[in-house]
Amino acid sequence: MRVMGLDVGDKTIGVALSDPLGWTAQALEVIRRGDNLDKDLNRLAEIVQEYQVEQILVGLPKNMNGTLGPQGEKVLAFIERLKERIDLPVKTWDERLSTVAAERALLEADVSRSKRKKVIDKMAAAVILQGYLDSGAIKG
């Protein structure tokens, strides 16, 4: 089962995909968000169709104490619109520290600051998705 992982922010959406067996996550692209949510959703629908995605996983930003803050509420509202546009199961995954982990991996790989800025969101999506895949949530 191919899963698409999303790291949804105000300015960008990081997109990652699992391999067809659901073992590994690969960063795919960063969608630059504008004022038109339909354009963002249409791009996601294109990716779903092109890669035969069967499930969508959205990173849900939580506060360190586990509560939802304003950004978490924005992501939940985004998920509702996503469900209206794309008829697939949508799950959420705790994304706390995913950007930190992605940043650390890029630093260890000696990626320049300007390049990190361009890829950090899709790397964070891959970290979120890999955590989900590693949990065994889609196996069995």
Description:
By secondary structure, the chain is an alpha/beta fold. It has a single domain, classed as YqgF/RNase H-like domain (Nucleotidyltransferase, domain 5), CATH 3.30.420. Helices cover 46% and strands 23% of the residues. It is built from four helices and five strands; from the N terminus they run βββαβαβαα. α3 (98-108) packs across α4. It is found in: Cytoplasm. Residues 1-102 form the YqgF/RNase H-like domain.
Topology, element by element:
Layout (H helix, E strand, L loop, with lengths): L2 E6 L3 E7 L6 E8 L4 H15 L3 E6 L9 H16 L4 E5 L3 H11 L4 H22 L6
Parallel strand pairs: 1-4, 4-5
Antiparallel strand pairs: 1-2, 2-3
Helix pairs in contact: 3-4
InterPro entries: RNaseH-like_sf, YqgF, YqgF/RNaseH-like_dom, YqgF/RNaseH-like_dom_sf
Function: Could be a nuclease involved in processing of the 5'-end of pre-16S rRNA.
GO cellular component, one term: cytosol
In short:
This protein is an alpha/beta fold and 140 residues long. The protein is built from 4 helices and 5 strands, in the order βββαβαβαα.
Provide tags for this entry:
Nucleotidyltransferase, domain 5; 23% strand; alpha/beta; 140 residues; 5-stranded mixed β-sheet
